[in-house]
Amino acid sequence: MLDFLKKRPMLLCAVVGCGLSVLGTFAEKALFWICPLILLLIVLACFKRAKAELVLAAVLALAIALSTLVSLKAIEKANLLDDTTCTGEFVVVEKPTNKGDYYYTTVQAVDCAPIEKGTKLAVTYNSGEMQLGEYINATLSLSSMENEDLKYSFYSDRIFLRGYLKSFRHTAESDGVLTAVGSVREWIKNTIFKFYGKPEAATMLALITGDKSYFTDTFYSNVKSAGVAHVMVVSGMHLSIIIALALYFANRLFYNPYFKALVICIVTIAVMAVCGFTMSIMRAGVTYLLMALALVLGRENTPENTLGAAVSIILLCNPLAIRSVAFQLSVLSTFAILVVALPLSDYLINHKIIKQNWLKTIVPMLLISLSALIFTSPVTIYVFGYVSNVSLITNLLISWAVSLAMYTCLLGFSIPFLRPVLFLFSDLLVRYINLLINFFGSLPFATTRTPGWLAFVMVGVIIIILGLLIACKERQKVLKLEEVRIKKFKERGKLKWQSLTKRS
User: Fold this and answer.
1) Under 8 Å CB-to-CB from 378, ≥6 apart: which residues?
2) Bridge partners of 174?
3) 89 lies in the same domain as 120
4) Has residue 11 been placed in a domain?
5) CA angle at residue 35 from 34 to 37, to 5 degrees?
């Protein structure tokens, strides 16, 4: 296991960084002891002339620990503003959502003492219209999130304060970038609802932008019960489809690695902006940006190291992201696919253990769903208190339809004169997806309540699985070396025998 991590220094850094971030949120003082220890390890590594990658990983881990301390100090400062009132200028950075009796949005401080510029606040208000990107003058009643059950959900987005809008008025100013992003989101939403039925439009909007606000309570409950909630969150799978489509058209013009990297960067940043820079899309987006960088620099792109680097960068910018459930599920499922599912499916196919062509398609999909299910189970059990009994079959039946529906929908946006036909086809696919979700999600045995301690049992199972896979890989290396040694021994013996016979 340790040898596996040593060969993947950025993955090792991500593991250490995650541990430090979790430790920091529970025991701040412990980081004061750990930081000097990490610094000592860096010095020793440099003294022993360790690989530059390992030294970089150690430095990055130290930076994550220090960033955690800074974030914790920011929370302490925010708590001091509990039960106070402030008046100033803010910019709306999240599209307001109607919650029935009130509206919810996120604003960012522009000029409002004693709140520092750039501080984000979760805001509620009773009436009035706001648009993404517009500036407002507002009076807010502030409260800390220290005693809230969902505080870590806000902390993971670097929101440490809650505010109630007593009054506000619009200004003539607006943020051009945020306004443009809001306009794109609105155009996508209006276009989808124009060509799709209402239930299908809600699902397609979630697949394209991650906006689940148009889901009914019943359908969203079925989504979670069927174990396909990750499908409705824009993440690596969705981004890969969008990038693949963009590269297809880009390569028709001309192929150049620098142009390819530029297309990946533009599409990735655009998708992250449209999806609101959620944790799942951030993980996937940073991964693709690192892949583009590796393409430009001509460096080898190791999937595990790229994932580790992406996680490390996110934790460096926001160490409290580790407490986001979406971030945890995204990282764990991606890790499971890269480290378990893909290598195992390649082994089964390359060694001709699986010979039937139809099994060569089914088995990889099954391994991807199963590995993601196992590796994310500790989080789902601990946080939600249940597991989906139908997740495996549901994911197997709808994964192909989700990919095809997204491809046809995106092609519809790209080719206007074919839009009605392509949208009609994707609408049929989404109807099929919704039908399966409602069927499997509403079954009486769809979920099983689980005790919290089972999460720790699953962590043990995951460690055993990883250990066995790494041991098997090492065992294969030993066997290959043994075969080579025996072959060389036989060849030497054969040569000696030939020389003896020639002498005689």
Assistant:
1) 455, 456, 458, 459, 462
2) 134
3) yes
4) yes
5) 65
Q: Which residues contact 360 (CB under 8 A, 6 or more apart)?
A: 349, 354
**Phi and psi of 85, rounded to 5°?**
-125, 140
Where among 55, 79, 103 does a domain terminate? 79
User: 213, 240, 283: which is closest to 399 by C-alpha?
Assistant: 240
Spell out a b/e string for 177-197, using b for 16 or more CB atoms within 10 Å of the CB, else e.
Answer: ebeebbeebeebbebbbebbe
Asked which of 145, 174, 203 is the last residue of a domain, the reply is 174
- pLDDT (tens digit per residue) in 400-437: 888 889 889 888 888 888 888 999 999 999 999 999 99
- C-alpha dist (Å) from residue 284 to 11, 154, 184: 15, 20, 21
Burial 51-75 (b: 16+ CB within 10 A, else e): eebbbbbbbbbbbbbbbbbebbebb
Question: 148 and 73, same structural domain?
Answer: no
Look at residue 234 and tell me if it is in a domain: no
Here the tokens at position 149 are: 């059950």
Residue 101 lies in a domain: yes
Model confidence over 349-390: pLDDT tens digits?
Answer: 776 677 777 677 778 888 888 888 888 888 888 888 888 888
**Domain extent for 133:** 84-174
Please check whether residue 109 lies inside any domain of the structure. yes
Which of 225-239, 371-385, 481-495 has the weakest average pLDDT? 481-495
Same domain for 113 and 158?
A: yes
Residue 45 has phi, psi (to 5 degrees) of: -65, -40
Specify whether 14 is located in the same domain as 95. no
**By the 8 A CB rule, do 62 and 17 touch?**
no
**Which tokens hold the place of 294?**
């590796």
- The answer for residues whose C-beta is within 8 angstroms of residue 73's C-beta and 6 or more apart is none
Q: Is the dihedral of CA 303, 306, 307, 308 positive or negative?
A: positive
Please tell me what DSSP assigns to residue 390: S
User: Of 278, 404, 275, 271, which is closest to residue 330 (Cα–Cα)?
Assistant: 278
